[in-house]
Amino acid sequence: MPKPKPESTPEQQNLTVGVISDTHGLMRPEALAALDGSDLILHGGDIGKPAVLDALREVAPVEAIRGNVDTGDWAQVVPWRRNLELAGMSVHLLHNIAELEPRDVESLDAVVFGHSHKPRNETLGGVLYFNPGSAGPRRFKLPVTVGKLYLRRGHLAGEIVALPV
């Protein structure tokens, strides 16, 4: 059953959210170009160094969480998880989906995560599970990717964007 959405103003009903994860300190120009035009950027952890967040903030406001490699003093102010309300949609941001409890999902529209470096854009039980993959150093033969979430008048859709690297 669809979750009821709170009322919002017309300008809040349409939102393009860039999603990036597992940069591991590498901020690719191709990733910045792919995220250009985003109203907001989410970073799903394993940032690597604060300069990554600084570069992303040049494109759009950033909401980030830390991952298992984010251990420096700079990362102590970055939370492990975030609950966000975006265009009337409830989004949970965490690094490792294995840490997600079933009760955490009950009132969510989307779970955004990273860690595996494997892109995922799948809806299960009315909840979008979205992993943008990795925009950092290539791991094995996995693609280098970012993602976009499109929030349009109570509807949510994800897109994985392969980077030309």
UniProtKB/TrEMBL annotation:
Known cofactor(s): a divalent metal cation
Keywords: Metal-binding
Domain of life: Bacteria
Domain Calcineurin-like phosphoesterase: 16-148
Any one GO molecular function term: metal ion binding
Annotated EC: 3.1.4.-
InterPro entries assigned to the protein according to its UniProt record, in alphabetical order: Calcineurin-like_PHP_lpxH (IPR024654), Metallo-depent_PP-like (IPR029052), Phosphodiesterase_MJ0936/Vps29 (IPR000979)
Sequence similarity: Belongs to the metallophosphoesterase superfamily. YfcE family.
Protein name: Phosphoesterase
Source organism of this protein record: Hydrocarboniclastica marina
